[in-house]
Design a protein that fits this description.
The complex is a heterodimer of chains A (about 110) and B (about 120).
Chain A lengths: L4 E3 L2 E4 L5 E6 L6 E8 L3 E9 L2 E4 L8 E7 L2 E6 L8 E8 L8 E2 L3 E5 L1
Parallel strand pairs in A: 2-11
Antiparallel strand pairs in A: 1-3, 3-8, 4-5, 4-9, 5-6, 7-8, 9-10, 9-11
Chain B lengths: L3 E2 L4 E5 L4 E3 L2 E2 L6 E8 L6 E7 L7 E2 L2 E6 L4 E6 L8 E11 L2 E6 L3 E6 L1
Parallel strand pairs in B: 2-12
Antiparallel strand pairs in B: 1-4, 3-9, 5-6, 5-10, 7-8, 8-9, 10-11, 10-12
The chains are: A mainly beta (about 110), B mainly beta (about 120).
Amino acid sequence: DAGVIQSPRHEVTEMGQEVTLRCKPISGHDYLFWYRQTMMRGLELLIYFNNNVPIDDSGMPEDRFSAKMPNASFSTLKIQPSEPRDSAVYFCASSLVILGNEQFFGPGTRLTVL
Amino acid sequence: AQKITQTQPGMFVQEKEAVTLDCTYDTSDQSYGLFWYKQPSSGEMIFLIYQGSYDEQNATEGRYSLNFQKARKSANLVISASQLGDSAMYFCAMREGTEGNEKLTFGTGTRLTIIP
């Protein structure tokens, strides 16, 4: 298994531009998570999906952020418009079940908004 | 109140010594889970160990064990015989809530440095 795949690995963009981060979870995993990691705030759960349905998006910072999961093998996290304070590492993770099961993290996307 | 508290921002430990990384949690749920993850300098998050609130035995995975003290709401990670490769950030995390309405919270992490 290739593990959780994220693209791009690095993204540099200018303030105001739209940014789309992509994630392919491990095949067969029912749960998909999006996290953001910064020095100031640590690791924050933004949103998670169960069987492609968003379950909890209370961690999404504001309306500029949106996430979709059109099918079991693909998810996107979109920021529009991007701002410098969105600069962070964004992780995608997947798991078989949420209760008592480990999450497998992708390598992360390092986003820099200038 | 913080859901997960890791009071040690950084630790330095001599190689081959045992290490205990502290984690306390706050929840009113009866059923919850506690996790430890390792994040080396390369950035990836690596699952280490899991403890369920109803598990009577402390979880162990190789050199990792979780010292679960439910009454004290602590879930400390113990690494035996530390190695240079153990140098990394370590995060404690908690899953709480009911199925379909779970919450996941991570602590702020502890940076562990193993000294040769």
